[in-house]
Amino acid sequence: MGSSSCGTMDDFLKQCQQSGDAAYAALKSLLEKLEDPSTRAEARIFLSNLQKRFDTTESSEQCFHTFHFRIHDIILGDYQGYQRRKTLKMMVIPSIFVPEDWSFTFYEGLNRHPDSIFKDKTVSELGCGNGWISIALAENWSPLKVYGLDINPRAIKVAKINLYLNALDENGQLIYDGEKKTLLDRVEFHESDLLSYCRDHNIELERIVGCIPQILNPNPEAMSKMITENASEEFLHSLSNYCALQGFVEDQFGLGLIARAVEEGISVIKPMGIMIFNMGGRPGQGVCKRLFERRGFRITKLWQTKVIQASDTDISALVEIEKNSRHRFEFFMGLVGDQPICARTAWAYGKAGGCISHALSVYSCQLRQPHHVKIIFDFIKNGFQEVSNPLDLSFEDDSVADEKIPFLAYLASVLKDNSFLPYEPPAGSIRFRNLIAGFMKTYHHIPLKTDNVVVFPSRAVAIENALRLFSPRLAIVDEHLTRYLPKLWLTSLEMKAACDVKPSEAAVTVIEAPRQSDLMIELIKKLKPQVVVTGMAQFEAVTSSAFEHLLDITREIGSLLFLDISDHFELSSLPGSNGVLKYLAGNILPSHVAIICGLVKNQVYSDLEVAFVISEQESIFKALSKTVELLEGHTALFSQYYYGCLFYELLAFKLADRHPHAQRECSKARTVEMIGFASSAISALNTGELSISELQNSSVIHMDVDQSFLQIPAPIKAAIFESFARQNLVEFEVDVNIGIRQFIKRHYGFPTDGCTEVIYGDSALALFNKMVLCCIQEGGILCFPSGSNGNYVSAAKFVNANILDIPTQSEAGFKLTEKVLTSFLGAVKKPWVYLSGPTVNPTGLLYSNDEMRGILSVCAKFGARVVIDASFSGLEFFTEDWDMWNLGDSLSKLNFYPSFSVSFLGGLSFELLTGGLTFGFLVLNQPHLIDAFYSFPGLSKPHSTVKYAIKKLLGIREQKGENLLEDVEEKKKILRSRFNRLKEVLQICGWDVLQCCGGVSMVAKPTAYLGKTLKLSQSSENGGANNIADAYEVKLNDSNFREAILRATGLCINSGSWTGITSYCRLTFALEDSEFEKALDCIVRFKKAVLGD
């Protein structure tokens, strides 16, 4: 074209002839001219002349080998009736991928979509290479914008040249389409590692298409090189053939880069967006489909064909994968072969000169629940990438997907947004109870309140706990509901109260009854039970008639009625007819009736259960709330989350009730006095300092709960999420037995071999309470050292155990000593000694190995049964001169009385910082104790998801996983610092503080306050938790100190009545940072309120 701003053609070609790098430099210079509007037309004419100079196939090939580039035409369509541009002009250079069968097949797959799929859409092409598909998309389907992305910087430069080649005609003039737009308006090319450009620029996409490498580089080190435009041509070209390991399970099939692209795509694609990928069939069609399906996509195969395996692609990496796994890749001999051969055979056949092919498919993918799936992957990309591999969002049944995916999204949000899990009352998560009440109100027109609902771990636990609360002389229980009741209750024939029966030996007598209402009513009339627990036959549950008959007869007889509706309660937007709920819509629930409902009907976790009890009698609600706190602790939080999600999904789309609820009728007056709470239960509930449940005020600061509110470590969150995300867990994956036994032996030296039995429960407290029942059954006396966990003592009192306090002394830190124990046990028959250690709850002091050896020797001498509780241990932070336990060694040296035994109780909430996971274990080594324990079958056991997470965490700890161990050590440092700060503030404010060495609680004596008077006026501005209208004045002592500091400041602690150490209060300090600061401020404010400035 003569001399111009682009130089002469001969000069240009002379530069290109020198090397591929020189040719690239010349083309870059030409691109600069194309990008400058003032030289654009001239540069485009130069390119036209350049193509004309090499206008035959032979000369084009010669140009590529001699001058390191070529310009050729790609035919888009030449069939009759094709209306669009038929050819594109495309330049290629050696360092980028030359369009071939792979990309042509991909384009054919895109062509199978209707024209509207890309029309006015924002599209991105991954691995755009020289840009021909991006340009063809823009030319044929008029998208709003196409972003062509490639990691190869040279590919992007050539793609931009090709954009100008096709956006301008041969004279350098812009070509406009029917919408008066040009390709320059519709297409952009950017250097990008997959979708990083779109993510960095907050670009939301409606379509993502990609044809990217799917074979691991046989030379992994090569992939670690920096990708720059000055890298070698061979390396840059390899980026089109090979990919590096991406950290996904699909890496083993060479699909890791596709997996990463899909997960990045989820974050930037719009909810109704579509991804389209070219998938080589080498790993097998099932593997290719699963890559998308397990990430929540529905897929459609648009097109499939066979292509010749590129000769420049080394498949030896696939041969190596086959060597180390059972997987076999799929190749074919030639294009017509229909029997697959493995990679090893294909490699050998190819080396011998044979032609091998593989399937090539185009998949179109769309998220099934885009909003929820996006939340899940947003959680994963924020530090939880390891969860991506076990994640499985593929479902054959849509109803399963509709339950599980929203729950996983909610769980991901909770774990991502909360550094710790908040305090929830023992009666159940407030949110969960609100949702239950909301469901009843919305779907069944029953105006329940949150405080009408108490949550239990299971239906069986709810029934047993209710019976223990009332301890009836005689109860009639539906035969379908007696399976998990204590055997003694089902075998006792004591139907009338006997005056010679000691309270500790008294047992409930349960008579089994058929579920049919007329037979049940006949039994009630004849036997006159104090409590009736029954369900309803299916045919009777449709109407309220049978229920009303039961109401009437139990009212007449004076029986409490617990009616189970579990089998008839439907979590559905169209729940079936339910006579009981119909009745409650028009009538207030009578005071002698409570409704029990076990939630077990879910599509995802068949063994996951939560139960709730409905009562509109305030006294029963409060008593049941305290009962679950004493006997179970809490209902598993994540189980409440799961069912809470089901309720939420059913309520989320409903409008607020537009009609007022009908006035409900009051129940008939009772003519016969009903049974009251058991005297032992009343005593425990009234004297035990249980959770503050009646204050609906978020300003209450809880220093009275054995729970850590410190930040949950990332490995814990990952394990929790993974446990729910997995599908089809096998027994081996949830078998914690070996891990727990190793853990106990390594940390405490307690023998777990031979005839030992390890029993698992939702919490250590639930297991402890079963041991208390064993003690009662044996006629033992349960002995607590003064300075034990007050809730454990109250729980034992609740079930009417025979209890004695073992005195402890301040000079020994209120720990048990050999001398005191020897003196004490000499006067006790059948002693059962409870001991919290190594970390003592609540004092936080530590028992050394020598101290334990001495204590055990005394217990052995007197034949005592010992229950060691290590559930509060694992966070020891002052361990100088403290020797770890070796219980096995201590026990092996004892000569003991035959009745002597040691049971080991523990949990992992503190040891592994398990956050909202609760998990308890109990080791028994006496056959008769094991038999006694199993005679109380109503134990709430950990769900398989909990056991999966615990096993994973135990494995990480066993392998000394750095992140988890570092987190544990960090938490110990925090607790040590917290104790020192709290100690300092307390001492300044007039408290005497007992040294603490571990755990999350300490004790201190408010010496300066005892005997002083606290006065709070009606307009007091001390910041208390209660909005109490009346003024408050009290002389401070053990019995009122807790209420006083709560009223004055909103700080909730436990007093000496709880600790069992006169005047020493318990304060927990594993609070969230801001809450801890508020607690310190409360202590200072209380000093001002009582002692002045």
TrEMBL record:
As one GO molecular function, the record gives: methionine S-methyltransferase activity
* Alphabetical list of Gene3D superfamilies matching this protein: Type I PLP-dependent aspartate aminotransferase-like (Major domain), Vaccinia Virus protein VP39
**PROSITE patterns hit by this protein:** SAM_MT12
Q: Which residues form a coiled coil?
A: 958-985
EC number assigned by the record = 2.1.1.12
Domain annotation Methyltransferase: ranges: 119-169
Domain Aminotransferase class I/classII large as annotated: residue spans: 740-1082
Enzyme class label: transferase
Q: Which reaction does it catalyse?
A: L-methionine + S-adenosyl-L-methionine = S-methyl-L-methionine + S-adenosyl-L-homocysteine
Q: Which UniProt keywords apply?
A: Coiled coil, Methyltransferase, S-adenosyl-L-methionine, Transferase
Q: Does the keyword Coiled coil apply?
A: yes
- GO BP of this protein: methylation
The UniProt similarity line reads: Belongs to the class I-like SAM-binding methyltransferase superfamily.
Name of the protein described by the UniProt record: methionine S-methyltransferase
